[in-house]
Design goal:
496 residues; alpha+beta; 3 domains; four-stranded antiparallel β-sheet; two-stranded antiparallel sheet; elongated
Amino acid sequence: MERIDKPENNKVIFQLNQKHETSSEIDLINVFEYMGKKKKLVAYLLILAILIGISGGILYSGFEHISGKGSYARAMITFQFDGIEKGLDPNGAAFDVSLLKSPYVIESALSGMGIDERNIETVRKNINIVGVIPEDAVERITVINKMAEKDTDNYEKLLDVSYFPSQYVVYLYDDGTFKNNELSQILNGVLSSYKQYFLDTYANAEALTVTSNLLSGDDYDYGESIDLVKTQISIMLSYVEEKMKEAPDFRASSTGLSFEDIVTALNFVKSVDVSRLSSFVESNSLTKDKSRQVEYYEYRIRTASNEISELETQLETVSNIISSYEKDPVVVVSGSDSTLQYGEKNEYYDQLVSKKISLNQQIAEKNTGLNEYYLLLNNLNAVAQSNVQADYEYADSLLARLNTTIANWVALVEETTEEYYTTTLFSNAVKVAVPAQYFVDGGIMHIAKNVAIPSAILVLIVLIWWFFNGVKAEIVNMRIKEERNNKRKGSEQIIL
């Protein structure tokens, strides 16, 4: 007779170690059976979770659309000039990229597009600027993160990683005020307006026009006008000489001039045209109002005298410091019987000497001006007869010609300097790396993503709850069985 083996009951179990060093086994088949008993409830919960996820996703998509965060125009702008890597602007001050969304820049952009300026604040509040972390900073952060995996103390080094972006992503969010194609145009217009604002701010050539037209009119007497002309030319020379040092080889194609050419021309105007007017006015003691001109010369004499006194006081102080200052000697042994001493090079001492020389030069210049004003005042007081009309007409013609000459040179300086900044110094200072493009994040795909994510999370929560509810039911059943077994064993021991 064949032996028939009884099939074994296959079970998938979990082993739980209890505190009292007893072990219990959870049968997954039983767990699934308990879970099966709640299939209907779980089905309802899953449907509810999906509905809640869909509703939440649609509501969030609607909120994005209303708040203007769903769709946007996006562009990328880069800065390339000395100091940007340290967070500084071309003048050495802290660089503020938020000026890109200043009302002035936006107003210029909107007016150029014919858009109502009442939308300035709407555009401004919807612009967001995000800096791009430089590659070297990303590498440092990555290395520190890897080091921190072995030693968490290295996370503190992340605080020491500083960087200043030179590249920014600019967003203009769509709040429904403008059409889709207008949004990209507006953002491109704002970036273009900012580039011009940047050049106007740091090129600063237009500052020369401030005094170039002050000579027109009858507000100044001839002596005052001459001083004003000299001041204007000095400002221009100082400005252009600085540019000549920066770019000695630059020559503008628009004007055909280099900065050295302009310096030479301005010096010629100063030495010839201004001198011609000065000599005529001074030799004829020409004035529109003698008493007012006398007061002007007396005022300049008092001012020059006070300035000389102040400079002489400074010179005396510097001279006393120099006379009492001793530089540390350097002793050099050249042989067994002799030594040589050389004064050590001292930067502070050299600065004092340079300051003294500069003060002496300033005092000499002030004294020259003072003597000129004394001479002009004496000549004016000595003249008894009044000037003829022909003298006034000739002086006026010289002054008008000089005013025109200076205005022309101001325009040439500005044009030459602007070309220098735009084509050489700041040619790539502000560059739109990626023009504005419109992105529709509020479309079907984006809404589907907003719906899918919360629905998936809620479904996962229901499934986890369903599984652990079955595990809990199995554990409760095991404890009931264990208590019954313990009672049965106890009763058997009593009977025995």
